[in-house]
Amino acid sequence: MSSSGAPRIGLVGCGRWGSLILRDLRALGATVDVVVRCRDGDRDRDVLAMGARAVSGSIGDLAGVDGVVVATPSASHAEVLDVVLELGVPTFVEKPLTCDAVSARRLAEVAPDRLFVMDKWRYHPGVEALRDLLAEGRLGSLEGLRTVRVQWQNPHNDADCAWILLPHDLSIALEVVGEIPTPVGAVGWTRDDELAGLLGTLRFSDGAWMHVEVGITATTSNRRIEVIGSEATAVLAGGWEEEVLVQHAAADGSLVEERLPASGGLPLLAELGCFVENLRGGRPPRSSASEGAAIVGAVEQLRHLAGVSG
If you average pLDDT over residues 68-75, what whole number do you get? Predict the structure, then answer.
């Protein structure tokens, strides 16, 4: 690390999402060297204009960096991480860790203490508020967790909606409840030979349930999280919501509602800030490689239960 304390970070992949990562890393004071697979002069100039120190086509050119962020397509994560981890530095990879349980477990075993997964919803102020409400006993004991994550079409051509959407909700379960539940059943459906949606049921170790719904045929985007307790229900009604709704029954049976503030920094900036601080000696990001591998395993099992092949 430089004498100024500014970390030098390698960013592998600088597409639509990677560009936002570059923006936030620069805002956090990091020096960023970018690796892109398909290079041309115009693209290189664009990346440099966004604040990159250098642009290259080889991960080998990142020798000497303090850490690496991987933002390549999901299906390429295993192959890219095999090369990146040879650099021997902390690595932060966009979810999912990989798109198959075998490679995810292998990578978690190779670098258990320096490979982390970018589960941005674990840093969402609303999710943190739900976690705290449950932990403080304000909802009673957990009965169930319900999540909805539906939208129109899949902008990713390398992985289906289960791999793109489900990891978010499983990481939310990890943050709110403290564990990744076990899949017990699922139904899926296709459109144009692509998985278009999946409904899944999972169980936590104490018997509480989780219901997940993901899909790419909804006419409007919907992100919703409900934590159902024995005494109250708490709801985060959207990704951009800055309050949590808590509902419970009064003594006379009438509905009582309370709206609690849940505002704060943007999740992407928050998780990248955690990674930068880790490079400076601070605590590691929230999702470890083993947790990332467990999420991959759960997605794979839900797809299997839904009859999805490949």
Answer: 98
Q: Helix, strand, coil % (nearest 5) of the chain?
A: 35, 30, 35
Q: Omega before 181 cis (within 30°)?
A: no
Nearest to 34 by CA among 53, 60, 21, 6: 53
Q: What are 180-220's pLDDT values in tens digits?
A: 999 999 999 999 889 999 999 999 999 999 999 999 999 99
Amino acid at 31: T
**95's tokens:** 């979810």
Query: CB within 8 A of 303, min separation 6: which ones?
Result: 162, 186, 188, 195, 198
Query: 31 has which bridge partners?
Result: 8
CA distance 106 to 110: 6
Among positive and negative, which fits the CA dihedral 197, 69, 225, 227?
positive
Euclidean distance between CA atoms 87 and 67, whole angstroms: 9
Instruction: Indicate the residue type of 42.
Output: D
Alpha-carbon torsion, ordered 56, 57, 58, 61, to 10 deg:
-10
Residue 74: which H helix or E strand, with range? none
